[in-house]
# Entry
Amino acid sequence: MKNIEKEISDVKTYLLDLRKFFHQHAEISGMEEVTSKRIRQELAKMNIEYEIVNDYSIIAFINRDKDKKCIAFRNGIDALSIEDNSDYPYKSLNKNVSHAIGNDICTAANLSILKILKKYEKSLNGTVIFIFESKGLGSEGPNEIINSNILKNIDYLYYIVNLPQIKIGQYTLGSGLKLVGSNTLLFKWQGCENNNFDTFENNDSVLASASFALNIRNMLARNLNQAEIYNIVITRFNSGGYYNIIPNYCELSLNLRYANLDVKKKMHKIIKDYVHVLENQYEVKVEVTSIADVPPLYNDEEAIALARKSALKLVNKAAISNFSPITSSDPFSFYARKYKVAGIAYGSGEQDKKQHMYYTDKFNPSEKSFDYLLKLVLTIITDYLA
# Structure
């Protein structure tokens, strides 16, 4: 591939049109029917082989099973349950659903890259795989793909996203911890419904759970290395009744963000011991369930070294940073159990424009940044499969 810049220029209109389509047809996790259908249509037009996993996930191949080398890229195709209030001239047509994390961009970009690669497939010394992942915001999507056994002999697997905090033309390419682990625990506090003011401190599920909510953050912080705890948040507190009746039931959920699995185990032990204390103190029963669990993402050093070498062909050293771990988590980390993986970010922030972060209703990454995504992916591929 002699002139990557020209190849990107030739597909730019295609990319922007596709991005507009996916942005307008944002669909929540597990219901990406329109999105998945359009991806399959585009792949069929390009005569690119693909397989479908559990209705909507798609795995596309260039030079499937050719030689030994294999490099892969993954993106989610689902959107969030957030209203679209971005400043784009086009909006999501589905009420309270928007691509507030940029999966519309990644999907359009990766299809555009496939369009370019198809022209050069005979010159590539190996296989390129693109994963368009349904249910990518939870553990279900990646685990379905991993368990399908379609992905074999992958050398490196990448996940590349935009980052509004850094400027266009910059990349984050650090090894080690990239994204923290996230574990949500659900607590069901069972007391005794009554209106007896003489015994209000006993059997009171609300008081017991409130004590837990007030104290658990400090308790964890005092007993653990704070550098390994990234966040502790009460995400829900639900109880209540009528008049002067003390409710017999309270539901509370807690989200833990942590650096490694040992820290998570220690957090669980402290929580378990404190819950036991409160059960005895307030004479209540507590049921604790883990309802969501995503491990931390550690970038593989080999995968990052390859990407960094390619990035240095595009920008100078000053434009590449390690970037400290952020409190976000991503189910992409499940792939690390089987493959050498790396999460990379490219800057989408404009100098004189207010940038809104992902997971917000005004998320607005600049279209000027898309070229840097395509350039990096194409350079990594051509460097590795030359």
